[in-house]
Design a protein that fits this description.
The protein is elongated. The protein has six helices and seven strands. The strands form two sheets. It has a four-stranded antiparallel sheet. The protein has a three-stranded antiparallel sheet with strand order 1-2-3. Helix content is about 40%, strand content about 20%. It is α+β, with helices and mostly antiparallel strands. Pfam families: PepSY_TM. This is PepSY domain-containing protein. It comes from Kangiella aquimarina.
Amino acid sequence: MKPIVFFRKFHKWLGLVIGIQVLFWAAGGFVMTFFDIEKVRGEHTMAQPAAYTLNSDISITATQALQQIDFEPESMTLKGLLGNPVWVAQSEGKQAIVDATTGQKLSPLDESMARQVALADFSGEGELASIQLLSEELGEVRGKDLPIWQAQFNDSDNTRVYISPQSGDVVARRNDTWRVFDFFWMLHIMDYKNRTDFNHPLVVFAAFLALFMTLSGLYLVIKMVFLKPKRNRVVKA
């Protein structure tokens, strides 16, 4: 079999195998460049955090705050939560919040406080429609510690704010735009389960096939266009 015949068949059948995934890569790349990443991340509806400065309201020391928690922390951090100073203790995935003015342990956050954190974080058009504590893993906050508070707003993009009951931090912001982006991200990296691994064996193998399809196509172009043998002209008598 002549090389050009082999490469024609090779390119055709390889294109049938990998062509759809190449289309998904192109579509995914287009979508990911089309959307504003700030809108995908929900940053356009995020309120500007209020400036917080330490003052004389702090009456509970870190040592006193330690008496309110049931584990030995690796670090104690002083920060502001809803305009009030709090101590945040951390150790190997464990966290606890202690009010730095009253000494009261605030974690895990109850619904009332989680609602206040969500409202303080959101600046978009819409109201808080519902709030619930999730104990089962949800795809759009995969990898986040459970349980987690989900605050649902009724704005045009259905913004969802996720709050850690242990630290009081907003750990994720999601919306309908993010869901579209995430779907095409899944197609782009071919991780159909966790949607996080972009160098797993399947995508590496697909990229390998796509490379060979491209090289075979390049060979055909060079062979048929630039190295095409000249035909002898037949002169009629």
